Amino acid sequence: MPRTGSPHTKMAALSSFDARAWSGTPLFTQGSDVTTMTTFTGAGDGIYEDVIAFLNARGSRSGMSLPEQIVTHGTGAGTWDIYLNDEDRVVVSNTADTFTAAGDVFGFTGGATSAILDGGVYYATAPSDFTRGVIAGLDLNLVPGASAAFAIPAAQGFQAQSIITMLRSYADAGAPAWDCMEEMHYDATLITSVRWGLTETGHVYTTSQVGHGMLTTMTWNSPTMRDRLGFSGEEVAVDIGGIRILTAAYPCPGVIVPSRPPHMVDRQSYEVGKAQQLRDATYAAVNRGYYHRFTVTGNLSGPVGNDIRLDVHWMRNARNYFYQGAPVVYYQDWGETRRRSFDVTTGYTTRYTVQSAGEMGRIHGHISSTNSSKEKVSWETSLKMLFRYTIVIDELLED
What we know:
Layout: E1 12-15, E2 17-18, E3 26-30, E4 33-36, E5 47-48, H1 51-56, H2 66-73, E6 80-84, E7 90-94, E8 99-103, E9 108-114, E10 116-118, E11 121-125, E12 135-136, E13 140-144, E14 150-152, E15 159-160, H3 163-167, H4 181-189, E16 195-198, E17 204-209, E18 219-220, H5 223-228, E19 238-240, E20 243-247, E21 255-256, E22 264-277, E23 283-301, H6 311-318, E24 327-331, E25 339-340, E26 352-353, E27 362-367, E28 386-396
Parallel strand pairs: 25-26
Antiparallel strand pairs: 1-21, 1-24, 2-5, 3-4, 3-18, 6-7, 7-11, 8-9, 8-13, 10-11, 12-15, 13-14, 16-17, 17-20, 19-20, 22-23, 23-28, 24-27, 27-28
């Protein structure tokens, strides 16, 4: 497991992403390639859990997940595999040959880890936790005992949302039937290394390996989608270590990633229902549900003494998405993209984390009716460095 649940972990709140208004609409052009929004036909189609689900479906395109890559590019005899074990550590295996594994972000730290033979299969288990958050251009290097060394991902220039999104395909991630932005972009350009995601500070990015055909600029056919993702239209990609990265100029609307951990997260459980005592002392009751409520309070940065200013973004492009009753995804530990689970019998998976009794994974809920319908920026000092925010989120306990 990663770091323990401490008051020093950052949070994030992401609104749902409703893409129905762009159904079948050309979104942007690079060269002669036009990326077009998939056409939504069913009731409820086009509503994504949040912008990460819209950008990359919390997974990898077919053929690009690490379990698929290690089979495709693995050398020598035997069958290769890569997965998470019950202790949330990355494991690499081969059914016929010994090997070593190295790659700090995957948890193979302190030099190469040698595989051990167990039950006729060679296993190398990462001695450390894998890195949470966005991963850029760092490979897992594998050296078989009797064949050529290789590395995954095979596309060396990449930037991915997380190790978890690299470990699973769209289907493994429970993605909806309609496409995410990453898939739509690939369909238009056939750039195999293209990826989309959200940075640690809440900016949308797209990336590919240098030389794979992605241009340094894009022309937006849809100004409204450009604005919805926080792009200005003037962005120019930068090339870093073989990776071409185009990052939106502004934080994504409907996304708030405070630069500081919250001061307090107050957790409550409550029921919604009504009971009436009858003459015989029994009760007639209606119970509509049992819920968890999270009241998150902290500070957002202002214009003075901060690298990232969030007051304008909060008032104009975030708070309006967090209205009473609005769907929201609350990331208790920003960088941990898996959903929380209380089922310790299943252990850790690429979909769920059971760490700290469910206090580290993401939570799905709605902005509570108790959340204030009014908002104001009240600076804690005359220097306009920090101001207080509060978000109240209701989660269905049975979900």
